[in-house]
Amino acid sequence: MNNLAEKKFILLNEDTIEIDLDSSSPYKLDFKSIKYKNLVVNLKKQSKISILNVVNDSNKNVTFNLEEGSSLEYNIASFEKENENSVKVNLNSNCSFIGAYADFSCGENSFNFVCNLNGRGSTASWHLATLTKNNDKKNFTISFFHHARNTYAKMENYGVCEDSSSLSFLGTSRIFNGAKESATHQVAKIMVFDKKCSAKASPTLCIDENDVQASHAAVVGQINEDHIFYLTSRGIDEKNAKKLITLGYLTPILSYFKDEETLNIIKTNIEERV
Fold it and tell me: Which of 14, 104, 143, 144 is deepest in the core (most CB within 10 A)?
């Protein structure tokens, strides 16, 4: 996987760096070797690019601008403490975006994602898996804005909350006037292990147009006792039964990561934190 540091960056100002990509090669964002606050990535027409971002710093803002017919897979993995980052994606006509975030960091994490479906026929999907333990405090804000006709978006946020930690999912999907024949869907699920946990899933739909599809599903609840009973009745102790259920909740995020090194790190972090 190539490193974005090897590409030619354009310094727009002291805080912002811009880069143009126009190939089908995968890239890996390297925050360690380049110091900046804002990164702007422009995908040229018909580009097909996969980018991996292993977050190891805070207060980073990344913006992707996709020209007509381009597609982007953007995978984020976070293992460090106290992150506060944001991502914005602007889609032109017939563009596609797939985003996945595996967050197994410790401490505090505040993350904001915005996707603007500006062109007709653009599609986007978002997938998040996170775990909070001890005194972790995490807030995720995910937003899709449909500005054009025949656009599609889906977000899936899954979390596990333990001990005295707190976890919040705020999902917003808006279909603006004129965005006919568009569809937007949300799923947010948080599994709570302890009474001291604070967990919140808040889906919001704002629909300004007819002839559209919109739905949301939000579930915050304790681990299913029937599942625990099923596993313990087959010789698995309660502690390992809860671990298996948690792994089943979180490991589907692995399917979005292709980089072997990062995949192994995610697996290790899941197993160590669960």
Answer: 144
Q: Which of 64-73, 100-109, 180-189, 233-242 has the lowest mean pLDDT?
A: 233-242
SS3 state of residue 193: coil
Q: Are 226 and 194 in contact (CB under 8 A)?
A: no
Beta bridge partners of 98: 73, 125
Q: Is the pLDDT of residue 238 over 80?
A: no
Residues 6 or more apart in contact with residue 137 via CB below 8 angstroms: 107, 108, 109, 165, 166
Structure confidence at residue 182 (pLDDT): 98
Residue 95 banded pLDDT, cuts 50, 70, 90: very high
Structural domain boundaries in the chain = 2-221
Cα torsion 239, 242, 248, 250 to 10°: value is -100
Q: Which residues, in sequence order, are bridge partners of residue 146?
A: 117, 175
- The 10 Å Cβ neighbour count of residue 33 is 9
**SS3 of residue 230 by DSSP:** helix
Asked whether the beta carbons of 61 and 85 are under 8 A apart, the reply is yes
pTM over 0.85: yes
Tokens of 3: 């490193």
Is residue 114 exposed (0-12), middle (13-18) or buried (19+ Cβ within 10 Å)?
middle
Query: What one-character-per-residue DSSP string does 83-145 give?
Result: EEEEEEEEE-TT-EEEEEEEE--EEEEEEEEEEEE-STT-EEEEEEEEEE-TT-EEEEEEEEE
Residue 69, pLDDT score: 95
